[in-house]
Structure formats: structure tokens, C-alpha cells
Amino acid sequence: MSIVTGSGAPPEERTDVLTWSRRRTMTGGVVLVCGTRPELIKLAPLMKCLGDRCAVVYTGQHYDESLYSRIRADLPSSQWFRELGVTTDGRAAQLGQAIGAVDKTLAEFPRPVVLVQGDTTSALAGALAANARELPLVHVEAGLRSHDRAMPEEHNRVLIDHLADLCCAPTELNRRNLVAENIAAERIAVTGNTVVEALLAGLPSAAARADLLSVRGLRRDEYVLATLHRPENVDDPARLAEILRELGKLPLPVVLPLHPRTSKSVRRFGLTRLLVPLLVLEPQAYPSFLALAAEAAVLVSDSGGIQEEASVLKRPVIVVRRSTERPEISGDFGTLVPPGPRIGAEAALWLDDVAGHRERLRHIPSPYGDGSASRRIVDAIEGMNPPR
Ligand code: UDP
């Protein structure tokens, strides 16, 4: 699908006529449209970098205390933050309501640039609302592909990338994915991922991490940190039971900050007894979570962002999923395993020599850049302006 480019001609021969006309009408303000915990975390460095040139429109897709208020409390104070309260269940209803609500809010701005991050329903709503108003659209974290059409997020990513006037690809692989889909090279900038800056700003000092662990009776390298929330793992009772059983059999204490979706599934499927061997916590504020992740022997997770963070924290991550859109970390920092007995087998490999792996991973650079992604993204946005 191509909205802003002509179809049929090879990419190098096409002219982005509509993209250009959009650029001409841009006046400088950037509206960030988002609606979930990971978007707030990864957009925080951009909010800082843009300062009072940015406004935040939050749809409300994640609205509870543990996933929203706790994360928002750590955000840089933005000039303008609007909550839209779109808390409907169901993707289609959520998408429809969010597009309408975002559209109304965008009307309050004099021709802003609209920026969305990642692959959520809120990001797609922001992209479609921008498209309907013919506003320039920037996609941060563009070009990720799992090639797994059963993942709703994969469809969101593809749609947003094809709508965007500027695709900010975290890695070279992401850029190649975009080019392979005929997205014109002039619409792509390789920027790194803002998660690096978010993490470096949020990670507590070694002393604060040690305090946090001792309060919970944990010791560095002597526990496993797990998170689970993807529908493929937690909406199916047999699969969820299998993962929890595997976690319960690991030879070290397992800390599990329980996502509200997972908590609901555990109750609904009558699996509460499988939590007994685990140290179950509320979802953590970002700095506390980073502290737990930095000191863990190994991470077990189905999260997207935690795969990236593992490469910055130099911790191994066992990715419990069918597919990943972040293959850059595979081999060095992570392994993809299906839910089931391979979790224990894979953990045994990493737990065999925790100190040795820590030392080895310390020297491997993160594929997500050096912590300058938000500066590069702002530069690329400024480059969208036509020469005066
Ligand atoms: N996270 C957090 N507290 C927690 C668990 C995770 O702050 O208790 C952070 C984590 O460090 C990462 C983000 O939340 O930055 C990942 O969110 P999630 O796994 O919900 O979404 P995904 O990355 O899979 O889209």
C-alpha cells in the first residue's frame, strides 16, 4: 500500500509529491500521539529534546495506575499533555474512538507535525488521524518486522510505515525492511532507538540498586526476572499454565511483576496456585524495573522493549514468543523460545556461568545505538522543512 507515493514506478524514480506539499505547510510544533506504557517510556527522551515545541496526546489505551500513572509520574513535565480517556475494549472500537478523539485534538494546533512511536492501536490511530488531516507524519521505531501476520502489531507497523512521511528506523536492518517494501529512501532516517537514552536516564545508581534488592531479599545474579503479557502467551490457559510451571521449576527465585492482563488471565483460568513458587510484584515504576533487570541473572520475557533493554543492560533475555521483530539481539543477548520446556533448558545454559556471561556481554555493543536517537530524530524532523 502506498498513500504518499505513486505506484508502479521503481522507488528511485518516484517523486513524493504529496509528502512535499505536506512539508511545505509544516510550522514547527510536534504532537506526540501515544497511549501505552512503553510509548511513554520511549518518548520521554524526545519530549525532553523537543521541550516546549512538543505536545502529548495520550489516548488512554493503558489507563490503570500501574501501567500509566506510575510511568507518567517520571516523565519530563511537558508544556501540554492531554488525556483523551479512550478506554474501550476491543481493537476496532478502540481504534475508531481514538481516531475521532485524536482528530478533534489535532484541530487545536496550527498545522503540527504528528509523531507516533511503535506499533500500538494508539499509534495507528494517530497515524490515520494525521493522514486524514494531511499533516506530516513521523514514525519512530519504523521498519521493525516479525513477518508474523498473526500479530496485530505487525499489521499496525506496516500500515504506519507506509503512511509516514518520515520513518525513523532504529537499525540498518529496519531500514532494509522499509526499502524492501518500496518505501523511498528519502523518507527513511536511521536514528537508533530512544530506549537507550530512556534507560540511561532511568537506571538507578549501583548503590540504589543494591538497596532495592536488599529490601526484597534478593541478591545480584541470584534471581530471574520475568514478564509476560502478550495475548499469544496469556490468553490461552494451557500455554499460560505451561509457562508459569516452567518458571516455577527454575533453580533460582523468579521475580514476576505481574501485568494486569496476565493477572486477569491467571484468575480467570484458575491458575493462582502456579504463582505460589514465584515472587509476584505489582508492575514496577520504570527505574525500579530497570534496577531489577540490571542485577538479574537472566530475564525471561515476551516484551518487545525488554529485548532492547537487555542489550543495553548487558543481560541475557529468553524471549518466550513465536516470532520477534527484533532479531538484532538474537544470538548475543537473547534466544527466541516457544512457551514450554525449552524455557528451563535455555535458562540452564545461561545460569551455568552467570559471572562469565556478564563479563562477555559487557563488551558487546547494543544494536540500538549510542543514546543519541532523539537528537537524530529531531534533526530528521527539522530536515523535513523545505529550504527557505
Ligand atoms: N516495564 C516497567 N515496569 C514493569 C515491567 C516493564 O517499567 O514492571 C517497562 C520495561 O522496562 C519496558 C516496557 O515497560 O521499557 C515494556 O513494556 P511492555 O512489555 O508492556 O510492552 P512492549 O515493549 O512489549 O510493547
Report on the architecture of this protein.
It is a single chain. The chain has 388 residues and is of the alpha/beta class. It has 2 domains: 11-194 and 371-382, Rossmann fold; 205-362, 3-Layer(aba) Sandwich (Rossmann fold), CATH 3.40.50.2000. Helices cover 44% and strands 13% of the residues. The strands form 2 sheets. A 7-stranded parallel sheet has the order 3-2-1-4-5-6-7, with helices on both faces. α2 (37-50) packs across α17, α5 packs parallel to α6 and α9 packs across α13. The chain is globular and about 55 Å long. The chain starts with 16 loop residues before the first helix and ends in a 6-residue tail after the last helix. The structure holds uridine-5'-diphosphate (UDP). Uridine-5'-diphosphate (UDP) binds next to α2, α13 and α14.
Number of domains: 2
Distance between the termini: 32 Å
Strand fraction: 5-15%
Mean of residue pLDDT values = 91
Give the biggest beta sheet.
Answer: 7 strands, parallel
Q: What do we call the CATH homologous superfamily of the largest domain? A: Glycogen Phosphorylase B
Helicity range: 40-55%
**Low-pLDDT runs:** 1-26
Q: Which CATH class of the largest domain is shown? A: Alpha Beta
Structural class of the helix and strand makeup? alpha/beta
Give a brief outline of the structure.
The chain has helices at residues 17-24, 37-50, 65-72, 91-106, 121-132, 152-163, 172-180, 195-202, 206-215, 231-234, 237-249, 260-268, 286-295, 304-313, 342-351, 354-361, 373-382; strands spanning 30-34, 54-58, 81-83, 113-117, 137-140, 166-169, 188-190, 224-227, 254-257, 279-281, 298-301, 317-320, 334-337. It is α/β, with parallel strands linked by helices and 388 residues long.
